[in-house]
Write a structure and sequence with these properties.
The structure holds two protein chains of two kinds. Chain A is α+β, with helices and mostly antiparallel strands. Chain A is about 30% helix and about 20% strand. Chain A has twelve helices and 20 strands. In chain A, the strands form six sheets. In chain A, strands 11, 12, 13, 17 and 18 form a five-stranded antiparallel β-sheet that branches. Chain A has a four-stranded mixed β-sheet with strand order 1-10-9-8, with no helix packed on it. In chain A, strands 4-5-7-6 form a four-stranded antiparallel β-sheet, with helices on one face. The N terminus of chain A is likely disordered. Chain B has 14 helices and no strands. The N and C termini of chain B lie close together (about 10 Å). Classes of the chains: A alpha+beta, B mainly alpha. Chains A and B meet through α5 and α10 of A and α2, α3, α5, α7 and α12 of B.
Chain lengths: ~500, ~325
Amino acid sequence: MTKFSCPSPSVVARKLAFSAVLSTGLLMIGLTQAEAAKTTLNLGMSVEPTGLDPTIAAPVAIGQVTWQNIFEGLVAIDQNGKIVPQLAKSWEISPDGLAYTFKLRTGVKFHDGQAFDSATAKFTLDRARGGQSVNPQKRFFSTIASIDTPDAETLILHLSSPTGSLLYWLGWPSSVMVGPKSSANDKTAPVGTGPFKFSAWAKGDHVDLVKNPDYWNKSVDVKLEKVTFRFISDPQAEAAALKAGDLDAFPEFAAPELMNSFEGDPRLTTKIGNTELKVVAGMNNTRKPFDDKRVRQALMMALDRKTIIEGAWSGLGTAIGSHYTPNDPGYKDLTGTLPYDAAKAKALLAEAGYPNGFSFTIKTPQMAYAPRSAQVMQAMFADIGVTMNIEPTEFPAKWVQDVFSGRNYDMTIVAHAEPLDIDIYSRDPYYFNYKNPDFNELMKKIQLTADAAEQNKLYGEAQSILAEDVPALFLFVMPKLGVWDKKLKGLWENEPIPSNVLTNVSWED
Amino acid sequence: MIVLLTRRIFGLILTLIAVSLLVFAVMALLPGDPAAITLGTSATPETLAALRHEMGLDQPLIIRYGQWLAGALTGDLGKSFTYGVPVAGLIAERLAVTLPLAALAILLSVLVAVPLGAAAAARRGGFFDILATLFSQMGIAVPGFWVGLLLVLLFATSLGWMPAGGFPGWGNGVWPALKSLVLPAVALALPQAAVLTRVTRSAVLDTLHEDFARTAVAKGLSRGRVLWGHVVPNALVPVLTILGLQFTFLVAGAVLIENVFTLPGLGRLAYQALSQRDIIVLQDVVLFFAGLVIVVNFLVDLSYLAIDPRLRAGGAR
């Protein structure tokens, strides 16, 4: 990058003299200000949310602004990915797994004064599962058969079949509690029960939140008075805003190649954590030649994941052998199942009837990781005689239409953002066109138990099936590239669920 | 004259309607379903149908066009799919950034280009002429967004005098808002100033050879007074014409600069609306741009009519 030389000594001297005069003048004010710790935060995000109601639209940016800050759920997912009580203080699951009885907190109020009780919770869940619902995770609520509210503190969910993931799902941004009087306007003026209230949204630039003085949870000490989420999509502009001090933090910095440009900045610190973003190259499993498992395995073995991570994401990222991240419960490292071995890949391809390889097209979205990964993959496939054409495909519009809805593609590459979404390989229809009854059976079994150890064992088996079957080429988990002021404490370093939880964020004196 | 004006206004309305039809048709042909984008990778056919109904996307195209046009005529531009707020308000908010930015850029480019161009013409081959040539060649060759990046590196990152981008809004005081527009305006003004310098230089050169200029010199006026008092004002007509054209270009064409400085302007709104398939916003913004061009052309036509009586006579035939 271009560097500028320092201003000439005389300019510096003049500037110094000027600032000396100025600072003497401001000394008194400065002293009184320094005593009080800073209580505002300017936080940067790459993507502006589309609306502010996570219960009616999917983009993760919505939850990254509102979840845990404005909106809260019956339960929450903490920094370590654990389910913790929130608006429900406790719960009991019936032995057959068909009834969930929640005890709700009392005295909780929404920002506009509406009371939160079992009727509100029932309203929220009915809204999410009803016929008119546009909740992006409507399927989460599909097994809820009926909801009882014997009193204001008690909520009973009756299920049509055991749903072992229900509690986890209730911790998601799409499951947050909304008020009956305010829900219709949550898209533009969100009203929740959280520690921060929505204040303003300058579309295209920033969203402001202010501290909720009446927050129900007295056990937390919310230090920030005002938070501004600023939306900057250009990586260079993101870096400039951080270095210029316009921003205090960028919890999910978008350009790994610029990460080392923060080294040596005395004010900033960088943290590399895990996300749930799995970069996978999905294949159309019903289309030739991808309908042949040997072909898919050969393609997987033709790829050296380390080199792809190096080329696509500056070496920052974790190789994966299945659709699962090290954050997730029951994670198994399966990168050794089909390790990089071009010679074996070639032999396998010949066995499948393609001794001279074949050619196909990959539809790549424009997000930086996709074309970069595709170019590295192209070279590696060429080594085993396979020709891959790269077709740029605008995301989300064209990609959703062609690949996701239309399933008209050979191969594509995309980062799957949903946490613990290994079940997408059992969904029908889903863009992979992958059908494996054994895998589907496992996914069902996982829902039949709420026992964590049993679930983890089943998740392990599911990972192994995918690693062996490779319905998609499993490449890497994206890192969470955090850049923030050294004096800022309490931001999450990992991301078990896409969020920017500010409850415990504060400035060190 | 009145007949002519009525005809022109009628033509203007017809053009706008034709443009609206074209814009709507193009949007209908764009691949990508706004409802599917909103629901993302967990969309099911059932939720998709519910959302399409809510967005009015399940209606026939002709009805959607009719609703849009009828709304637009009564000042109701519809609601943004992504933001959920009326589009008219969104456009107004963005204009509050884009218009001052364009005006500031125009002002800067005039302040640089007119004196430089005139001084260059006054003494061909002299210092200012060489400077003007260098400046205009560089200004045209160097892309504005790159200049923007350099300005950010110098004034925001290294010196910390200016914000690196973003817009605090006019509600937080005029100075902070203006401050965040200065660097982008400079980046935007540079290519404009380069073109304008050339235009001014050649216009002044042409005017210098006109009879009245020579008469003024013959009368014994000083070079400077001839140049600044007589020649430059007369040479401003072509300069103003270019300025008028540039203004529409600036309003519509600031997308890159707005991205570099993350300014919430109209250009970036159009860009975001396109990628999110926020069709209503996109339709309205494109129609607004088209309307702007058409109205500016109309005004230019009117000014020609005012200047040249022959056109008036011809029009009344």
